[in-house]
Each structure stands twice: as C-alpha cells, then as structure tokens.
Design brief:
Layout: E1 4-10, E2 15-20, E3 26-29, E4 39-44, E5 49-51, E6 60-64, H1 68-73, E7 83-87, E8 92-93, E9 98-101, E10 108-109, E11 112-118, H2 127-133, E12 134-141, E13 144-145, H3 146-152, H4 156-160, E14 165-172, E15 180-185, E16 193-196, H5 204-212, E17 222-224, E18 239-244, E19 248-256
Parallel strand pairs: 6-17, 8-14, 9-19
Antiparallel strand pairs: 1-2, 1-5, 2-3, 3-4, 6-7, 10-13, 11-12, 11-17, 12-14, 15-16, 15-18, 18-19
Helix pairs in contact: 2-5
C-alpha cells in the first residue's frame, strides 16, 4: 500500500503532519512532508486524533470542463486551454465533515475530482519540469451551487461557500494515470460519475505548467483537475462518496445551513 501522508489534530488542539500506519497510528513528522519533514519519535495512537484536510494551501486553483463529456453535459465546447477559477481556502473540510447547503441556493452539485499538491515554489514552469513540481495527489469534491453559478455568469459565489471543498483523506506520492474516479450518493451501487484520469483533456502536467505562467504556486497549494460527466444535485442528509483508485475514499454528508456557524480553519502550525 502506498504511504499515506496526513494532517491531524489531537484532542489537546495541536496540529501535526504525519505518516498513517496500518493500525491507524500516526508517526509524526517535524514539518510538512513537501518541506522536507522527517519522522520523529512521537507516535499518535488511533484514538488520540482526528483527521484534518491534508494540507493548508495559500490558494486552491481549479480547472473547469476538463473532461469532454462533462463539457458536453454543460452544453459548452471543450476549452482550447485550461479554464481556471479559484476557491478560497475557507471552503476546505475534511473526511466526514458536513457540506452546508447555503440558504441562497436551490441546487448544490457534487463534483468528484483528482487534486494535486504542489511541492515547491513554481513559476513559469515548462511541461517537462511540471511533473517534479507535483508532490502528491488526493481526492476533492468541487461542490458547486449550480443555480448561482449560472445566475452570476462567473463562478466565485457558486464555488466559494464555506465547506464547498472536501479534501482528503490523505495524500499519496504516486498515482496511475489510468486510475478510475467514481462518485456515489448514499448507498447506491452504481456510480453517478465514472471515468479514467487519463480521460482529462489537459493532463496534470499541462495544468501545472499553464497555471505557473500566470501565478506563482507555493508549497502546499492545491489544484483541482476537473470533474467527469454525471454531476447532479444533492439533498439535505445525502452522503456523497468520491473514490479514486490508488488513493482511497472521501465521504461527506450534506447538512442544513447553520446561521452564524464559524467553520474551523486550522492553521498549519506544527507542535512537536
């Protein structure tokens, strides 16, 4: 099994990066792994922590319509170059945390995606250099208020609500380009979305190189690579599960919007 890199919080409120073991214990690292973090002698037992989203990025850059079938279901042509938008870091939530259904929307969709984790500062990166800039891979759900996205004509509001970017549950270093991505709702056995990562219009390396010509990517930044066809609305109490072969499963549930609720955004401070 591939090594799984996690970010966790213990019950005293301290945040750590670490290596997840088969018995669910954590070997604590002395820094984020993409910054050269090394194993320490500290071990967290399985009952002493909970998982956080696996990195704390300065920004989340997402690619729209990167599967031709999804572009078709949206009634638009395939873009001739990557179509970019941003999600704020306040959209991030971890495995098993609630996606809050905003009161402004009547249609909130799931969008299962492969996410890239950038390992080093990257600017004006060539295609041949791009692979070395990708430190690892995880799973994302680019939750979208579809009615607001269409109403606004630009995507900031529809993509930017708190809890609209489930991410995790961990990061792996390598993934098969032909791995399958699938999305399920509740206990359905037939996936709502199913595609191969190789079906992307623009590969991860092309995406990283393209973005780096526009903005500097920083260690720990997240890039969402687009969703396959099959997007649809979610309802309150639905559970949405995104699976990617070679990574694992990211599952979250949909909950009613809670007035004035502050979504906890842990800072990437390491205690050792």
């Amino acid at each position: 099994m591939a090594q799984r890199y996690v970010r966790v919080k213990n019950y005293q409120g301290q945040i750590y990066y670490g290596l997840l073991q088969l018995n669910r214990s954590i070997i604590v690292l002395d820094a984020p792994p993409w910054l050269g973090g090394k194993p320490t002698e500290m071990i967290l037992t399985a009952d002493s922590y909970h998982l956080l989203f696996p990195c704390s990025p300065s920004k989340i850059i997402a690619v729209g319509k990167n599967y031709s079938d999804h572009a078709a279901e949206m009634g638009t042509p395939v873009p001739s170059e990557p179509l970019l938008f941003l999600k704020p870091p306040t959209t991030l939530i971890a495995l098993d945390q609630p996606i809050y259904y905003p009161k402004q929307s009547q249609r909130v969709d799931y969008e299962g995606e492969l996410a890239l984790i950038i390992g080093q500062e990257t600017k004006n990166c060539s295609l041949s250099q791009a692979r070395q800039k990708i430190w690892g891979y995880t799973i994302a759900n680019d939750v979208t208020a579809r009615d607001l996205q269409k109403k606004d004509g630009q995507w900031t509001r529809g993509k930017g609500f708190d809890t609209f970017c489930p991410l995790g549950p961990w990061i792996v270093r390598e993934i098969n380009a032909d791995a399958k991505i699938t999305t399920f709702i509740n206990d359905e056995t037939h996936p709502r979305q199913s595609a191969l990562l190789s079906d992307m219009v623009f590969s991860p390396e092309e995406i990283v190189s393209y973005i780096s010509q526009i903005m500097t990517l920083l260690p720990g930044d997240v890039i969402l690579t687009g969703t396959p066809e099959g997007v649809a609305g979610m309802q309150i109490d639905d559970r949405v599960r995104v699976e990617i072969e070679g990574i694992g499963v990211l599952e979250n549930f949909v909950a009613n919007y809670v007035e004035n609720k502050v979504i906890s955004q842990e800072k990437p401070t390491l205690s050792t």
